[in-house]
Amino acid sequence: MSNSLKKTAEHILELLDRLATESASGIPIIVEGQKDMDALRKLEIKGDMVSAKGFGKSFLDVLSEVEKRGKGEVVILMDFDRRGREWTKRLTQGFERMGIKSNLFFWNGLRSLVGKEVKDVEGLASYLETLKGKIGYKV
Fold first, then answer.
1. Going by fewer Cβ within 10 Å, which terminus of the chain is more open, N or C?
2. How many domains is the chain partitioned into structurally?
3. Which CATH number fits the domain that encloses residue 27?
4. Looking at the domain assignment, is residue 137 inside a domain?
5. pLDDT for 45-90, tens place per residue?
6. Closest by CA position to 130, among listed 120, 118, 115
7. pTM of this structure
8. Could you say which DSSP state residue 122 is in?
9. Could you tell me which residues come within 8 angstroms of residue 92 by beta carbon, excluding any fewer than 6 positions away?
10. φ, ψ for residue 46 (rounded to 5)?
11. CB of 6 closer than 8 Å to CB of 139
């Protein structure tokens, strides 16, 4: 079991490293809220992030905010629960209509790795720390 946990941790770290590279290249990351942004920053992902919820933002506000950035691609990294899946679908469709590619690679990858263990992006950092503790991983 420890070997499968180790592989899971390695895959998560690999995905987060690739996400950091994408973000550093200027591709915006769409997350649900400020806590999600804070969690990603804790995981060493720096770059342009857009909060989809809070501060009275509507769905159209989020689309407009991304459109103003003038990028042809956006990484969607909403939560892994039902609401997150719904928002991901809506955002993907909205961006598609605007000619902006929605990158779901990281969302799908992380969601498949964390399963039912983590329901939101903000829980990734603590989940990864717990996983590292279980397998004796040293940073």
1. C
2. 1
3. 3.40.1360.10
4. no
5. 999 999 998 777 888 999 999 999 999 999 999 999 999 999 999 9
6. 118
7. 0.91
8. G
9. 76, 102, 104
10. -115, 155
11. no
